[in-house]
Amino acid sequence: MKQIYLDYAATTPVDPEVAKAMIECLTMEGNFGNPASNTHFFGWLAKEAVTEARLQVADLLGADSREIVFTSGATESNNLAIKGVADAYSHKGKHIITCVTEHKAVLDPCKYLETIGHEVTYLQPNTEGLISVAQVQDAMREDTILVSVMFVNNEIGVIQPIAEIGALCRGRKILFHVDAAQAVGKLDVDVKSMNIDLLSLSSHKLYGPKGMGALYVRRRPKIKLTPLIHGGGHEQGMRSGTLATHQIVGLGRACSVANACLSEEYQKLLSFRRYFIDSVKVIPELKINGDPKHVFPGILNVTIEGVDGEALMMALNEVAISAGSACNSATIEASYVLQAIGLTAEQAHSSFRVSFGRFTAQADVGKLIALLIKQVAKLRKMSPLWRKGKGDVI
Ligand SMILES: *Cc1c(COP(=O)(O)O)cnc(C)c1O
Predict the structure, then answer these.
(1) Residues of the chain with pLDDT under 50
(2) Most C-beta atoms within 10 A of its C-beta, which of 137, 171, 227, 368?
């Protein structure tokens, strides 16, 4: 049985055009050279491809191509930005501001920094998942060196007030890092007008290959970063290692494809979101989590009271969606993001995330809706807890 893929926030398939460009950079007949080889044609050709890709990435962000550092993904980009700034600016201060609903790839570097003498303030969002500019301002201190706030939340899709926080940080001369893994290629992201100093992106969230990403690092004013990886001095010394031409070309092409169809794709996702929300209104006590206005339309996080998430996952096995709980090897932990916005552990367990993308068809959304309506009714009929709550005599 082939499932319908509705988990684009977890990863996206590589766009066929991207795959084609990548394949051309692998074999003897292709562009396989080392971009750092400057004594022969193979190297020059590879370097040319990398240069073009760097421009494509920069274009999507409104950046200069010299501000793009290629990495292995958003996890590495976040680590480089946060630990790199913490180390390079520790003479100025050791205080960082972030948010409890950030991705683990931001929270864990922050936790690590706390073990070596840095201080981190974790802002609490409101029940809609939003943090306010005032909260960021109130948390700022003399020794604050960095604010790190994600663009789009990967679990609930909420969009933080990035431009407003950026303006505040610029005014206070505090560096501003944004984990934009879920935003780049999907929303308008402009590092200049938003006053972003460092921005992480992930190739596999925008129809490029896995194991590839980039960090935008502002040049004016110049930002110092202590590298995580020392070696041949590639990427202006910020990230050593032979450049992976095929991966870089893949990311570059993914960015140019995204740039070309961004607004059209956004409108499609918005119509799917409206279709879904309108259709599931017939299900009692169904709630869409997160702010309804400041949200990326492709991500929907849904709580269905009185229905166990795991049972629901099994009942919906014709669609590939994500549970509201993160399965760690032994225990099933309720999502910390959902709990941070006020859901109980039980409610978090009764939640799931569905995410639409480039290859989602209206019929796929229709299938999900039909399944959901049918299976929720069935599960609730079997649930003594739910029936009791509704006044049934059991
Ligand atoms: C996926 C994701 C990451 C991690 O990106 P990788 O490229 O898989 O390392 C970081 N932050 C957010 C918000 C994400 O969605």
Answers:
(1) 328-329
(2) 368
Which structural domains are found in the chain, ordered by start? 4-9+262-390 (3.90.1150.10), 16-257 (3.40.640.10)
Strands (DSSP E) contained in the chain are: 4-5, 68-71, 95-99, 119-123, 144-148, 175-179, 198-202, 213-217, 286-288, 299-304, 319-320, 322-323, 325-327, 332-334, 351-355
197 lines ligand 1 (CB under 6 A): no
**pTM (2 decimals)?**
0.96
pLDDT in tens, 153-192: 999 999 999 999 999 999 999 999 999 999 999 999 999 9
CA 215 to CA 195: how far, in whole Å?
Answer: 15
Using the mean position of ligand 1's atoms as its centre, give its distance from the Cα of residue 200 in Å.
Answer: 9
> 115-137: per-residue pLDDT in tens?
999 999 999 999 999 999 999 99
State yes or no: cis peptide before 292, omega within 30 of 0. Answer: no
Cβ–Cβ under 8 Å, residues 34 and 43? yes
**What's residue 394's pLDDT?**
54
Q: Residue 28 Cα, ligand 1 centroid: separation in angstroms?
A: 33
Instruction: Report pLDDT for 353.
Output: 96
From 55, 337, 265, 61, select the one nearest 178 (Cα to Cα).
Answer: 61
Specify whether the CB–CB gap between 19 and 213 falls below 8 A.
no
Q: How confident is the model at residue 327, as a pLDDT?
A: 53
Atom of ligand 1 nearest to the CA of 180: 13
- Contact (Cβ atoms closer than 8 angstroms) between residue 353 and residue 8: no
Q: Indicate if ligand 1 lies below 6 Å from the C-beta of 74.
A: yes
Neighbours of 80 (CB within 10 A): 27
Question: What ranges make up the beta strands (E) of 197-253?
Answer: 198-202, 213-217
**For ligand 1, is residue 154 a contact (CB within 6 Å)?**
yes
Give the pLDDT of residue 387. 65
